[in-house]
Design brief:
mainly alpha
């Protein structure tokens, strides 16, 4: 059984993972002209996703800039989140054993 703080952190990481996925999908839909970014509702969703993801993506882009027009920052953020989630679930039983 997980510590309540660890459980809350895992839930926040999981939600943020879905936000990153949504931001990537929306950017693809805009790039292929599937959705119109001039629509007020779409623009509001874009602003929310940008505000939630861009500060983290910007930190990753400082280290790994876009290569040939391909931005790898969402992939790196996704991998870091997955690694943190795995580490937290594996670390918790060791803490309970007294390690």
């Amino acid at each position: 059984m997980l510590n309540p703080i660890a459980y809350l952190l895992l839930q926040v990481l999981d939600i943020y993972k879905w936000i990153v996925i949504a931001a990537v999908i929306v950017s693809w839909l805009i790039a292929f002209n599937v959705i119109n970014s001039h629509n007020n509702i779409v623009r509001s969703i874009l602003r929310i996703l940008w505000a939630l993801t861009e500060p983290v993506f910007r930190q990753v882009r400082r280290v790994i800039p876009p290569m040939g027009g391909l931005d790898l920052s969402p992939l790196i953020v996704f991998l870091v989140i997955a690694t943190l989630e795995y580490a937290m679930t594996q670390w918790q039983p060791l803490v309970e054993l007294g390690w």
